[in-house]
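PROTEIN DESIGN WORKSHEET
SECTION A - STRUCTURE
LENGTH: 390
TOKENS:
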């Protein structure tokens, strides 16, 4: 019997996790990505395995999603994370005023935590600002931005998925109000061709709005870039966070022998046009030094910007006022366009959960009774994506 065919647009973390999920459910899957896999936002985040603690006060839906997926990823992708935990630290009286709401939020969201003394925090992190007034340990971790998606892709390939890189969608094929496939351009050969599909899933991240417009539908997405700065030296071993409302430069993520300071936030219309704001680089140094004073004199390795794909309509000023949760849109129900689904928003940490919700929608639309298995299936190593030998 001919398998149903799903085309996934976008080779980032969400597209990778969705390819894995749908392949396990027995569907034929093709992923198209205009560049190399993870070349969009996925390959540019700071590499945090989120505990959800950052969102525990003002964005509890996202916080609960993060802690749930954090625990699942530890089981299905062993070896992909540095499970070094994180510290939320209060430096000022204003930070201390935030502490009761923060602890209450952790309790509400089910995020494990442990309060430690300032002396213990300084013993563990000697470069931490000695003015620290309070510290809370949470199950944050670090990860390589590429390796987890490659594990999803490798496992999907083993189960028959086809990943087409440097293959850009130029048009959605439509018969009346039904999407029937995609017309793509191969940027290696410069040839264009068509790929038919029973369902097309738009998992293009910050570019999802552009893809949705090809079907004449609107996705309420606001691309929100932020600048990250990597400096030479591993100035902290745990992930360090300021214990206050989300703001600029309030986290330092240790990555191998570097430290990544993040991030600023603003909004744009076009995720391909991200202005590198030099003032934001200066602010990363300034705010990073409030956590670790030695950051002030650290040599910069690199600075870059990545566009977060945040759910929300126009009108946002900085992006900080928008939730980090995700939403799956079945455009048949929402817009009267059949054969087309969009998944947008979320975090790298929640990609598997985003894929599960989307795959459930796809399975329902196709009349397939196949449960999600991605909570238990251990992923192949990231190197298997390139070897393609299992």
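SECTION B - SEQUENCE
RESIDUE ASSIGNMENT:
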């Amino acid at each position: 019997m001919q398998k149903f065919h799903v085309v996934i647009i976008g080779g980032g973390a969400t597209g990778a996790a969705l390819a894995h999920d749908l392949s396990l459910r027995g569907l034929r899957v093709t992923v198209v990505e205009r560049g190399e896999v993870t070349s969009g936002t996925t390959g540019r985040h700071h590499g945090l395995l989120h505990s959800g603690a950052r969102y525990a006060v003002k964005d509890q839906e996202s916080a609960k999603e993060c802690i749930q997926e954090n625990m699942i990823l530890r089981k299905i992708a062993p070896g992909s994370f540095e499970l070094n935990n994180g510290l939320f630290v209060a430096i000022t009286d204003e930070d201390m005023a935030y502490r009761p709401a923060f602890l209450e939020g952790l309790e509400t969201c089910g995020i494990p935590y442990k309060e430690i003394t300032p002396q213990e925090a300084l013993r563990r992190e000697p470069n931490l600002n000695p003015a620290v007034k309070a510290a809370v340990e949470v199950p944050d971790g670090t990860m390589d931005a590429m390796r987890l998606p490659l594990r999803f892709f490798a496992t999907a390939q083993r189960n028959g998925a086809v990943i087409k890189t440097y293959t850009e969608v130029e048009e959605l094929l439509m018969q009346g109000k039904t999407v029937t496939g995609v017309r793509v351009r191969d940027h290696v050969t410069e040839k264009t061709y068509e790929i038919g599909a029973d369902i097309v899933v738009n998992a293009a991240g910050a570019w999802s709005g552009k893809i949705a417009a090809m079907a004449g539908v609107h996705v309420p997405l606001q691309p929100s870039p932020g600048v990250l700065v990597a400096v030479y030296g591993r100035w902290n071993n745990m992930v360090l966070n300021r214990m206050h409302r989300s703001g600029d430069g309030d986290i330092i993520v240790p990555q191998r022998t570097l430290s990544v300071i993040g991030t600023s936030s603003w909004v744009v219309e076009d995720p391909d046009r991200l202005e590198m704001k030099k003032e934001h680089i200066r602010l990363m140094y300034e705010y990073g030094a409030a956590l670790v004073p030695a950051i002030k004199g650290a040599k910069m390795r690199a600075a870059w910007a990545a566009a977060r794909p945040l759910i929300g309509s126009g009108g946002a000023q900085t992006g900080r006022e928008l939730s980090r949760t995700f939403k799956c849109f079945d455009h048949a129900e929402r817009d009267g366009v059949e054969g087309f689904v969009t998944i947008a928003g979320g975090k790298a940490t929640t990609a598997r959960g985003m894929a599960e919700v989307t795959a459930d929608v796809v399975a329902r639309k196709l009349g397939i009774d196949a449960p999600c298995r991605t909570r238990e299936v251990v992923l192949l190593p990231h190197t298997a994506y390139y070897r393609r030998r299992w």
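SECTION C - NOTES
The chain has two domains: 5-42+147-220+323-387, 48-143+222-311.
The first strand starts at residue 5 and ends at 9.
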